[in-house]
Specification:
319 residues; mainly alpha; membrane; transmembrane; transmembrane helix
Length: 319
């Protein structure tokens, strides 16, 4: 690992990911339309319609034939919707990560190759997702059991604890905050896991461990990337859903379409930014130069690192 401190920040990651996307704009447009557009549409429409079911005075539904087509979304099983959203997310992760990785090196990116990458990375991505969610669930269960043990221990000592007690409420809030912090810490450490699945063909707990290793020294950058895109996408989903419920689908259709396009762009750059962060983390750990030396022997290679961002400008010249 390099002994030099880095000065890479969120804006460096964003600018580099934007450069890659702009260099292959039509390619990423095709991938976005294929996966991110339906995902964004579902993230906006489904929660909106479900929320409207609990508002009898909502303008979203009225007896008009053009609104009958929305009955499919209102009757869709939440589990089926979750599975559909997960599949679209993983397909987008697989294809866009693959293309961004090759675009980072300045290689030509092809739509067919990106689509074919799904055959090799989709199931490992599913396995990694399941492993991470199981760990999250076990952590929540563990802290829940600890809270129950504490309450039972206090009662065993002869103290009476009512369910409406302020002490019990305080304990619940404390446990909840600790769980959120632990899950957030793990999420930051595992933020590169899906990129590693696509690029390095590792999966499951091995990919999570690899991500935790690479992100060392870059946790604040990883956290800023997660918060930046998470907050913006969350605000778009929540704001647009509330807007559609209040004004109706017919009145807010064009506005919601604009929000969906903004979400597509944000999710596209989010995935690309994760790949760029992965590459910078490898450079910070001294791994990138060796990879380039092995793959691009007898060629001159200049990677688009900014001297002011990361102390690794990788230039390999071999004869």
């Amino acid at each position: 690992m390099s002994g030099y401190p880095h000065t890479l920040n969120l804006w460096g990651v964003l600018s580099q990911s934007k450069r890659i996307i702009n260099a292959h704009s039509r390619h990423f447009l095709a991938l976005s339309v294929s996966f991110l557009l339906p995902l964004s549409f579902s993230l906006i429409i489904y929660p909106t319609l479900q929320t409207a079911l609990f508002h009898s005075g909502s303008n979203l539904f009225h007896p008009h034939p053009s609104h009958l087509s929305f009955s499919f979304f209102t009757s869709t099983d939440p589990l089926a919707y979750t599975l559909l959203a997960a599949v679209l997310s993983l397909l987008a992760l697989a294809t866009i990560s693959y293309s961004t990785f090759h675009g980072f090196y300045g290689r030509p990116v092809k739509l067919v190759s990106s689509m074919k990458s799904v055959l090799y990375s989709f199931l490992p991505l599913v396995a990694t997702l399941i492993v991470s969610r199981v760990i999250y669930a076990l952590i929540v269960l563990l802290f829940g059991l600890l809270a129950v043990i504490v309450v039972q221990g206090v009662q065993f000592l002869g103290f009476e604890v009512g369910y409406d007690s302020n002490y019990l409420l305080g304990l619940g809030v404390f446990v909840g905050v600790v769980v959120v912090l632990v899950v957030m810490w793990l999420h930051v450490n595992w933020s590169l896991a899906y990129v590693i699945v696509v690029v390095e063909s590792k999966w499951g707990y091995e990919a999570l461990q690899r991500s935790a290793y690479l992100v060392k020294g870059m946790r604040w950058v990883a956290l800023s990337v997660l918060l930046f895109f998470g907050v913006l996408i969350g605000l778009l989903v929540g704001g647009c859903s509330s807007f559609l419920v209040s004004v109706g689908a017919a009145s807010g259709g064009w506005t919601s379409f604009g929000v969906i396009l903004q979400m597509v762009l944000l999710m596209l750059q989010n995935i690309a930014a994760s790949v760029v962060l992965y590459m910078y983390c490898k450079a910070l750990h001294g791994e990138l130069a060796l990879d380039i030396a092995e793959e691009f022997a007898r060629e001159y290679v200049y990677l688009p690192f900014d001297n002011e961002k990361v102390p690794h400008v990788v230039c390999v010249v071999q004869s």
